[in-house]
Amino acid sequence: MNKYIKTDIEQGITFLKIAINNALANLETGEEKEIKFEYPIPLQLIINCAKERGWTEDSNMNSDWTNGWQIDYWYSMIHPNRSDYLSIDGSLLDGNTSLRIINDY
User: Fold this and answer.
1) According to the 3-state scheme, what is the secondary structure of the chain?
2) pLDDT at 62
3) Which residues contact 97 (CB under 8 A, 6 or more apart)?
4) How high is the pLDDT of residue 66?
5) CA neighbor of 102 nearest in space, from 72, 59, 61
6) Do residues 74 and 59 lie in contact, with contact meaning Cβ atoms separated by under 8 Å?
């Protein structure tokens, strides 16, 4: 792979992680109730950023996290120090990703 392409991708991922962390911070402080991205954001990047912020995967909710016929997904994470959970959902077909914190899990 061309070294410029590799560097562009690495820098893009870095900026995307910054945006995800900023979005999570806004949700955690209550500044935003829901954040909807117009583009599909890689689920694994969101999960990794949330884990770095102390969220853990919700094994009860994540056993069946796709609808099986379309490329839609929903995923939940729990904050260890609060009674909130992070809801992540999106569609690769429609090109969106949404994040929201739901209180009193």
Assistant:
1) CCHHHHHHHHHHHHHHHHHHHHHHHHHHHCCCCEEEECCCCCHHHHHHHHHHCCCEECCCCCCCCECCCCCEEEEEEECCCCCCEEEEEEECCCCEEEEEEECCC
2) 57
3) 36, 37, 39, 40, 41, 43, 46, 88, 89, 90
4) 55
5) 61
6) no
Sign of CA dihedral 22, 34, 71, 63: positive
What single-letter amino acid sits at 70?
Q
Residue 63 pLDDT:
57
Predicted local confidence at residue 92, as pLDDT: 76
> Which residues of the chain fall below pLDDT 50?
none
Residues 52-85, buried b or exposed e (16+ Cβ, 10 A)?
Answer: eeebeebeebeeeeeeeeeebbebbbbbeeeebb
For position 73, what pLDDT does the model report?
83
pTM: 0.83
99's tokens: 């994040």
